[in-house]
Amino acid sequence: MHDSIAYAMKYPKASADFIREHAQEMDENVQQQHISLYVNQWSLELGEIGKKAIRRMMEEGTIAGLLPNTEVVFVDELKKLVN
Questions:
Q1: Are residues 35 and 54 in the same domain?
Q2: C-alpha span between 19 and 54 (Å, rounded)
Q3: Nearest Cα to 34, choosing from 44, 46, 22?
Q4: Which pTM does this prediction carry?
Q5: Are both 39 and 52 inside the same structural domain?
């Protein structure tokens, strides 16, 4: 996934035809806003700030009764435990 996101960031027009064909929203500005939600630096690397935000969101969801109380483990952290 990392490589796909990096490619999309480097070549933003490469997927334009595919997006136009499959998008429900035909306005290109709206399409680009949607893409920018997922094709961004945070998608490549959460960093500690991103991880903290996800943990906080999970905690708040648990407090609100929307999510089960679950330990959040990120792939890069799991890799460190395995190696």
A1: no
A2: 28
A3: 22
A4: 0.62
A5: no
CB 61 within 8 A of CB 67: yes
Q: How many CA atoms lie within 13 A of 13 on its CB side?
A: 0
Full residue range of the structural domain in which residue 18 is found: 2-43
- Render 12-62 in DSSP notation, one character per residue: TTTTHHHHHHH-S---HHHHHHHHHHHSSHHHH--HHHHHHHHHHHHHHHH
Mind listing the pLDDT tens digit for each residue in 24-81? 877 888 888 888 888 888 888 889 999 999 999 999 999 999 999 999 988 888 877 7
Same domain, 50 and 39: no
Amino acid at 30: V
